[in-house]
Design goal:
The chain has helices at about 20-25, 25-40, 75-90, 115-120, 160-165; strands at about 1-5, 45-50, 55-65, 100-105, 125-130, 145-155, 170-175, 195-200, 205-210. The protein is an alpha+beta fold and about 230 residues long. A hairpin with a 4-residue loop joins strand 2 and strand 3 (about 55-65).
């Protein structure tokens, strides 16, 4: 749902049937996904993303499984280890490719599941909806809009029990349409900032979600369940 700082709510964004992405419908790609995922997780890593280019490049992005409060980095040795094992696994299964690359996640890493979303609560993210806002925009944003950038938060009213359970969690991103203040720019004390806006969503409504590719994640602090909305 979309709302502003005044507390007014629009009708909820559409909650459509979960659409399985084409990647999972293609038998060849499904087999590739299975081979790569089994190999990567078998070595103790987490599979983040598989990219396959028309030129035969197969790029695999890996990370360590998330543990709260622990952020180990993927090293060159980790990538080499996965590369060696994947070369063997792909050869055994007859997967054709010209070049294999193993890398750690970039600053625009994809968010694929609830674990990823919980890990990056409070960070700036980019989301793309599967369908435009339509009537749910309620005049607050363009009805044809599908892409948003904002701070990832738990949906207002989410309890701590819901956060800690394995059940799907609802989310929201919060943003302001105030123009960015440039370094050295004078800001009038009388300037009236536009209200914060928030868009509630479930992961099934998203075509894609990624960390916003910015160097410094300052933004808003994570808002925990039970806290009142932050005022900026």
């Amino acid at each position: 749902m979309l709302h502003d700082q005044t507390g007014g709510f629009s009708p909820p964004v559409f909650f459509g049937r979960y659409i399985v992405e084409p990647f999972r419908k293609d038998p060849i790609r499904v087999a590739l996904q299975q081979i790569v995922e089994e190999t990567v997780t078998g070595l103790g890593y987490d599979l983040v993303e598989i990219e396959r280019s028309a030129g035969g490049l197969l790029r695999i992005t890996i990370d360590w499984p998330w543990e709260k409060g622990v952020e180990p980095s993927i090293t060159v040795e980790d990538c080499e280890k996965v590369n060696r094992q994947l070369q063997f696994s792909l050869e055994v299964d007859g997967v054709e490719y010209t070049r294999l690359e193993i890398s750690s996640p970039g600053i625009d890493r994809p968010l694929r599941n609830d674990t990823d979303f919980k890990r990056f609560v409070g960070h700036l993210i980019d989301i793309t909806l599967k369908a435009p806002m339509g009537e749910a925009a309620a005049g607050l944003v363009n009805a044809s809009r599908k892409k948003f950038r904002g701070t990832l938060e738990y949906l207002e009213g989410t309890s701590q029990n819901e956060v800690q359970s394995d059940a799907p969690v609802q989310w929201q991103i919060v943003w302001s349409d105030a123009p960015e203040v440039k370094p050295g720019q004078r800001v009038s004390k009388k300037r009236v900032l536009p209200p914060l806006q928030a868009l509630g969503f479930t992961r099934e409504e998203l075509r894609e979600a990624r960390l916003a590719p910015v160097v410094d994640f300052k933004g808003r602090k994570p808002k925990l369940p039970g806290e009142s909305p932050a005022q900026e």
